[in-house]
Specification:
643 residues, alpha+beta
Length: 643
């Protein structure tokens, strides 16, 4: 019996000890396995005798065993040491593999070794078209490298990401993988010359209320950063050569050159004599002010080798004349607001000087053309085979031209097909029926989120578009002109973009007279009073009495609350617009001064008709624009929050 109790005592004691121990003291520390190995570069070219280090990363960061072993399948072609340094031995190809022994997870790099080429024209440098970029996770970016001189025999480029877990790069194509920072470097073979881009990757931000698109305006800097030039002769310019005069609506062949001698916008100083075709564009702007400065559209025959003025490698471009705007800043300002509120797409732009057949034409805004099916453009994919459930892009516009169009059944809006331009009968029936269903739900005040208009509209985009149009008091922004709808296969009806702000931000004669809007100082059209919220229709036919979607949307308390929430999110961003205007005026002053002195902006001195006191200078017009904007912003802030 004593022996029994002695054993029982020992067992209880051991149990007490075990209970007092932590679990990891009993079964050992937790093992966190490696789940992914990333390697950069994933492909590399070297000359015999060259060496280059590979960058490896493992995930997760807290993996227990991060050991990496290095192997190469053809050691006579190249070798790799324990630190991932490749040495090229003999011409040929080989594969280097980085492996975590514990999990067998690995990554590879394809190695091409070349024999040195005698009497080659050596590289003297390398340029890339991006130096500092911010992306969201899963976004992509194409970086273009240019090896100098243009006739060098060493044109191949090696790409490497310093943190391949954050972003991968292959042939300059960058894909953002996880939040963090990495440096993407392009180097010549042998690594004698290199150029780098610092890439910051962020997690996707919270989308706007009722919208599927990210709130990209949250991280927008106060204004762009350009290399400022002071001499007019150094300002970026476009030279167009064409036989005879340019006709409205009819393309004519010619050539175009882009010149940026002091690298204001990018490191590419010029593209010369690119083949293109050009035509006059615009409705009221074509021939305005006696045709002293007409707007144009041109299409390059081929994509340029690098980005145009740091924008992109598009073929299709628009030259806005802004001849009715004494500041030349209203379109740029409105598009900036569009980016601040995160419209699904906002065209990028640059101020340029334009010369046609060696004759100065004025200061223009070079803007990306409105297109679909292109990365970072209108986000819909249009069917090439006539599929019904695919992408559509349409415009409300009352102008008469060759575009196919239809009238909606409930609001009587004339809507033109932009893409597809010539839809099949089935496609017409589908998108016309969809838009008419939206209008019917609005007319019948069907506000239920499951079965009403919310079920067929990306409401967040209608809110963002409203903020842009109401804030700028755009005469065409009340759903009469230049209003765009889109629908993709997996979306509801949404508003993809905004456009056309010459007659906005106080630059419209009849708004003040027709609607008795309060003045700033008793003499100029004022910034106070609702416009888009309560007014639709056309001048001369009950303007302000004809309903638009917004008159019904404001009847829905859910829409009003969503608008208030969104407004209070973006309002701090919108406070920065006057500083943006000042910065753009500073950057572009040499071109603006030239435009004015050459008589390309007749309203710059005498002012617009809505300003009886006449602007005494271009700067006077800019200051008035800022004053108008600031008063309207604060008025709207009070009134929207009081809804």
């Amino acid at each position: 019996m004593k022996r029994f109790f002695r054993h029982l005592f020992v067992a209880v004691g051991c149990l007490i000890v075990l209970i007092g121990c932590r679990r990891d003291e009993i079964i050992g520390p937790k093992v966190v396995p490696v789940t992914k190995v990333s390697l950069s570069p994933t492909a590399i070219t070297l000359y015999e005798g060259d060496s280059q280090s590979l960058t490896v990363s493992v995930e997760p960061e807290d993996a227990t065993d991060k050991e990496i072993t290095w192997t190469v399948d053809h050691p006579k072609v190249a070798t790799v040491d324990e630190n991932g340094i490749i040495t090229a031995i003999h011409a040929g190809t080989a594969t280097v593999t980085a492996t975590n022994p514990a999990t067998k997870m690995g990554a590879i790099c394809k190695v091409t070794v070349k024999e040195p080429v005698p009497d080659l024209i050596p590289a003297t440098g390398i340029l890339i078209d991006a130096q500092k970029v911010t992306l969201k996770v899963d976004e992509t970016l194409q970086i273009t490298a240019t090896v100098l001189p243009s006739n060098t025999d060493e044109k191949e480029v090696n790409w490497v990401s310093s943190n391949p877990a954050v972003a991968s790069v292959e042939n300059g194509f960058v894909r953002a993988l996880s939040a963090g920072e990495t440096t993407v470097t392009a180097s010549t073979i042998g690594g004698k010359y290199s150029a780098s881009c610092v890439l910051t990757v962020k997690e996707p931000t919270t989308p706007a209320t009722g919208s599927r698109w990210e709130d990209t305006g949250a991280d927008l800097p106060d204004y762009p950063t350009y290399n400022k030039v002071t001499a007019q002769s150094d300002f970026p310019r476009i030279d167009i050569t064409v036989s005879g005069s340019i006709q409205h609506g009819v393309y004519k062949d010619g050539t175009v050159s882009f010149k940026d001698p002091r690298k204001m916008y990018s490191d590419i100083t010029e593209y010369t004599n690119l083949k293109m075709k050009i035509k006059g564009r615009g409705n009221t702007t074509w021939g305005a002010e006696g045709g002293i400065k007409n707007p144009y559209r041109f299409k390059l025959e081929e994509h340029p080798a690098n980005k145009v003025f740091g924008l992109n490698r598009d073929k299709d471009w628009i030259l806005l004349a802004d001849v009715q705007d004494p500041t030349l800043l209203r379109n740029a300002t409105a598009l900036r607001i569009s980016r601040m509120v995160s419209m699904p797409w906002t065209p990028k732009y640059r101020a340029v000087e334009l010369y046609i057949n060696n004759k100065y034409s004025g200061c223009y805004l070079l803007v990306e053309a409105k297109e679909t099916d292109i990365e970072n453009k209108v986000p819909v994919e249009v069917s090439e085979t006539g599929e019904v459930d695919s992408g559509y892009y349409v415009e409300i516009d009352d102008k008469w031209d060759e575009d196919m169009y239809f009238y909606t059944s409930h609001f009587g809006k004339k809507i033109k097909y932009k893409d597809p331009e010539t839809p099949t009968q089935a496609q017409q029936e589908y998108i016309e029926g969809y838009i008419n269903d939206v209008e019917k739900l609005l007319k019948n005040k069907q506000f239920d989120k499951s079965t009403g208009y919310w079920s067929k509209m990306e409401v967040g985009t209608f809110i963002d578009q409203y903020i842009v149009q109401e804030l700028t008091m755009n005469v065409d922004g009340n759903m009469r002109l230049s209003t765009y709808f889109a629908k993709d296969k997996d979306t509801k009806l949404f508003m993809p973009m905004v456009w056309d702000f010459d007659l906005a931000l106080g630059n419209c004669t009849y708004l003040g007279k027709d609607f008795n809007l309060p003045y700033i100082d008793g003499s100029r059209d004022g910034p106070k009073g609702w416009f888009i919220k309560i007014r639709g229709g056309y001048p001369g036919e009950n303007y302000g009495q004809k309903d638009t979607y917004y008159q019904y949307l404001f009847m829905d308390p859910q829409f009003v609350q969503a608008l208030k929430d969104r407004w209070n999110t973006v309002k701090p961003r919108l406070d920065k617009i006057p500083a943006f205007i000042d910065k753009m005026a500073e950057y572009n002053k040499p071109a603006y001064d030239h435009n004015l002195s050459a008589g390309k902006n007749p309203r710059g001195n005498r002012g617009y008709e809505s300003a009886p006191d006449a602007f005494k200078s271009w700067q006077d017009a800019v200051d008035w624009l800022k004053e108008w904007y600031s008063i309207r912003l604060e008025w709207l802030d009070t009134e929207i929050n009081a809804l």
